[in-house]
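Chain A, query sequence.
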Amino acid sequence: MISSRQVMQQRGICVIIPTYNNGKTVVDVIERTQKQCADVIVVNDGSTDNTPTLLHHTAGITIIDRERNEGKGAALKHGFRKAVEMGFAYAITLDADGQHFPEDIPLLIEANVKHPHSIIMGQRMLEGADRSGGSKFANAFSNFWFCVQTFHYLADTQTGFRLYPLHRLKGLSLLTSRYEAELELLVFSSWHGVDIIPVDVKVYYPPRNERVSHFRPIPDFTRITILNTFLCMLAVVYGLPCAIYRVLYIALFTIVSLIVYLVGALLVITPYTAAVKCLKKGTLPVHKILHISARFATAVLQIFCSKVIIRNKHCEDFTKPAVIICNHQSHLDLILQMGLTSKIVFLTNDWVWKSPFFGYVIRNAEYLPASEGIDQLLPKIKSLVERGYCISIFPEGTRSTDCSIGRFHKGAFHIAKELGIDVLPLVLYGAGKVLPKNGVYMRRQTICLDIDRRIPYIHREEAGMLTIREESNRFRKYYRQRYAELCNEMEKI
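Chain A, predicted structure.
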């Protein structure tokens, strides 16, 4: 079990603490935060009490000193810029007055792993908290206008406990300098399609006579009202068109992709396959047209929707037969693998093998239905291997809804053992986010297919006399580790 500090380092997450005259609480907040995160940036926003002295006597933090008080929005901008300069992908912000519990940081990290590139909101559990009437009104006021401006409802838009994806922050250059800056960040990010995920966190309000507040009711409410009026007008001329464009683009690309796919399958690949069969040219020409079509589809995907990264650092050329195993996320998985080589055959589910759209091509390409059972399929697989084909199998057997690594079945490893051939692991990231299981629309997301080093059969034998089940469990453990590493790497982009 790795600690939250390790997870934050792997995912490129730091903590930013803006402070102004919080000498009584800031050191305690920092020390508790350092137990969760090794990288803490503190922005001293022109404090006039003993805060600067305390900060410079606190070890292990990065300090940004501002000569005069510019406001929380300005402090956040300085913190974000420093975090990007230091190479961080995400930043957690929390207040220095002790209101937030740094011990809740793992809750935000857990949500970040499930929802990368989203803003994670530490939604304060305010029921029973001793809040002033002004605080209650300010939160309700902010929630209402955020809903009007974005058509999304959040129960706590005023929380300062958040996790931001730094490379997806929008409107940062337009940010105002005071409290309302945090609302601006939410509004601009929402307009640009950044998801906002609330997570319940604890909150502490000290006795009223001990609280430090820099909120000025009349001038601050006046400024916030003016800002919301401006944002409402901007929502009509900018925010709404952004949302419409985003929806239309995704819908149009999905429809065009479906049309191209059906036209290609029914009017190009299927007639070509029928002609090859009539001329008795064997199956290699069918595999070649599938390979060319898959490369074309991957190129189109990369141009219009998603960045596709194929990594082959071990220079695999697929000339030597192997059992290819890959985690299964999406219908795109087969296309990505077919684009690697024409010498590949898949074990498929029955619905793929019998599909009215591409079943004829699949059957004539000698893809095999897994439902026949491994022992019955072994002679056919052996014949394909002897002809130089790699056999691709998804050991999970089905696509996962959340892209996690499911239980591995034994079939792939049984085949490798019976035929004495290598296992070639492919680790896939992002395909299930572009086209999720049960999803309707394609989404923009980076895809990475990492071709790992093949594992020769003799090396697997020398590693110990493992049972097939033990070997499948070992590979699943390996995949979970490699997939986590790939997620951490890709989600920093």
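The chain has a mean pLDDT of 89. The chain is about 45% helix and 15% strand.
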